[in-house]
Write a structure and sequence with these properties.
about 260 residues; Rossmann fold; six-stranded mixed β-sheet; four-stranded antiparallel β-sheet
């Protein structure tokens, strides 16, 4: 198994924007078929770290990445690596549901089509919607505009869109931040199911959410310059019940944040 039990590994990863570091010297490993939560105060670089894992930071002017990000043992920032292929294999879902202004079906099929996959679209679309626990709710509405869906349904549609191209890793940046408790519970249940087939990495401000669904949790905190650094990383139960770092304990107990 290329990369062993860890599908992604960062080695001395630092990301800066116009010379100012957002995260600095992050080294960590993400186990396969598990959920890793990244938590920490606002502005500590959680989303920057997440975007660095599939080269989304390439799209931001002034961004510079140092260090290495290994996906199955291969540095995704190495020479000759196609960032489009990286983003297909390491999919991403954003904080605010962002369906395209087209039908439910065409939203899910979009990534397939731009990747040149044109065969068996109906089966692939259905499979992705089933994986996102959305098929039964939309199977008779596939030609309707995606904007007619509720916020929670739109977010699950975005997850289905990411899953349609069969990635190996799913990155989620605050996927339930704009959803009500019922929709949030559905997303959490969905992610717990999906980890059987995918590796999931989620940024969340909701510590209770991390405690509920994550197998391991990483805690980022700003250093003296404001750059996010990794202060603790381990099994979620240990992070929340017996943290090794005083800064982690203070954050979890609400003394800082």
């Amino acid at each position: 198994m290329v990369g062993g039990p860890y599908i992604i590994e960062t080695l001395g990863l630092s990301v800066s924007y116009d010379g100012r570091y957002a995260v600095r010297n992050i080294s960590m490993r993400f186990p396969r078929n598990s959920i890793t939560a990244i938590i920490g105060p606002s502005g500590c670089g959680k989303s920057t770290l997440l975007r660095s894992l599939n080269r989304m930071n390439d799209l931001i002017p002034g961004a510079r990445v140092e260090g290495r990000v290994l996906f199955k043992g291969v540095d995704i920032y190495g020479d000759g690596v196609d960032p489009v292929d990286v983003r297909r294999r390491i999919g991403m879902v954003f904080q605010k549901p962002n369906p395209f202004p087209m039908s439910i079906y065409d939203n899910v099929a979009f990534g397939l089509r731009i990747n040149g996959i044109k065969d068996d679209l109906d089966r692939r679309v259905r499979r992705a919607l089933e994986q996102a626990a959305l098929w039964d709710e939309v199977k008779d509405r596939l030609r309707e505009n995606a904007y007619k869906l509720s916020g929670g349904q739109q977010q699950r549609l975005c997850i289905a869109r990411a899953l349609a191209v069969e990635p190996e890793v799913l990155l989620l940046d605050e996927p339930a931040a704009s959803l009500d408790p019922v929709a949030t519970a559905k997303i959490e249940e969905l992610l717990t199911t999906l980890k059987q087939d995918y590796t999931i990495i989620i940024v969340t401000h909701n510590m209770q959410q991390a405690a509920r669904i994550a197998d391991q949790t990483a805690v980022l905190m700003p250093d003296e310059t404001g750059a996010g650094t990794l202060v603790e990383y381990g099994p979620t139960r240990q992070i929340f019940t017996n943290p090794r770092s005083r800064r982690t304990e203070d954050y979890i107990r609400g003394r800082i944040g």
